[in-house]
User: Which sequence fits this backbone?
C-alpha cells in the first residue's frame, strides 16, 4: 500500500491506552500502539500525535467532583503528559526517535511547544507527541488536536477511537444506529454527533482539514487509514 499523506496528526484518546482496564495505562496496549505508529513512520510519513488523559483524569468527569473547572482541567493536562511520556518510551524502545512537546512548561520531561521547532522535528523524521492540550483550561484535547494540526500544516487528522467510525447514535446503546462512511462537518454539528467537540469541528471546517475516525484497536488500521482505505472508518470533510 502506498500512503496518500505526507504529514498527519494522530489523535489518541487516553482511553485507547487503557486497554481492558478501568483506569490507568496498559503498557502492552501502549507497545501495540507504538508498533502500529512505527509501521506508518517507516513509510516515510511525518507523524505528530496529540494524546488525551481520560484514562487518568478528566476535568469534566465525575472524578473531578466539585473541583473548580480550571483546576480540574490543569490536572487533566498533567495526565496527558504522563501518557505522552509512556508513549514516547514505547516508541523509543522500537528505535523511533520522538520528541514530547508540552503546552505547560515541564523542562525535565518535555520541550516547550514552539511551532517552528515542532515542524523541524517532523522534517527530521521524528515523531512529535504534543502534551498538555492547548495549555488552557476549558479546551479539550480535541481542540488541541485541531489547533496543532493546523499549526504544523498536517494534511489530515486521524482520530483513533474504540468504535469503527461515526454512527447516528451510540452503537453500544442503540443497535439500529447507522454508520456513516462519509459525512460533512455541518452534518456533524447539526446532528450533534459526538465525534469531537464543536469548537474542534468548527476549526477543521473553517480550514478545510479532513478528519478520519477509525477503530484504533484493529491491527494495521492506522496504516490502512493513511493509505486512503476509507472502508475502515468515517471520513469527515466539507463536501
Assistant:
Amino acid at each position: 500500500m502506498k500512503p496518500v499523506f505526507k504529514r498527519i496528526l494522530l489523535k489518541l484518546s487516553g482511553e485507547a491506552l487503557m486497554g481492558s482496564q478501568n483506569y490507568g495505562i496498559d503498557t502492552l496496549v501502549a507497545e501495540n500502539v507504538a508498533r502500529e505508529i512505527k509501521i506508518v513512520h517507516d513509510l516515510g510519513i511525518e507523524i505528530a500525535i496529540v494524546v488525551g488523559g481520560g484514562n487518568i483524569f478528566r476535568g469534566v468527569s465525575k472524578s473531578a467532583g466539585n473541583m473548580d473547572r480550571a483546576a480540574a482541567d490543569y490536572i487533566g493536562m498533567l495526565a496527558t503528559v504522563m501518557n505522552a511520556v509512556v508513549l514516547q518510551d514505547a516508541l523509543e524502545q522500537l528505535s523511533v526517535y520522538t520528541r514530547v512537546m508540552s503546552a505547560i512548561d515541564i523542562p525535565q520531561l518535555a520541550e516547550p511547544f514552539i511551532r517552528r521547532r515542532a515542524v523541524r522535528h517532523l522534517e527530521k523524521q521524528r515523531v512529535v507527541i504534543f502534551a498538555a492540550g492547548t495549555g488552557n483550561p476549558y479546551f479539550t484535547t480535541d481542540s488541541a488536536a485541531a489547533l496543532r494540526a493546523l499549526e504544523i500544516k498536517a494534511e489530515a487528522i486521524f482520530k483513533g477511537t474504540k468504535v469503527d467510525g461515526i454512527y447516528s447514535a451510540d452503537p453500544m446503546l442503540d443497535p439500529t444506529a447507522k454508520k456513516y462512511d462519509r459525512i460533512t462537518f455541518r452534518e456533524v454539528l447539526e446532528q450533534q454527533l459526538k465525534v469531537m467537540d464543536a469548537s474542534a469541528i468548527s476549526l477543521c471546517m473553517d480550514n478545510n482539514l479532513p478528519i478520519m475516525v477509525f477503530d484504533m484497536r484493529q491491527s494495521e488500521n492506522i496504516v490502512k487509514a493513511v493509505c486512503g482505505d476509507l472502508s475502515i472508518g468515517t471520513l469527515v470533510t466539507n463536501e
About this structure: The chain is about 35% helix and 20% strand. The chain has a mean pLDDT of 93. The two ends are 26 Å apart (CA to CA).
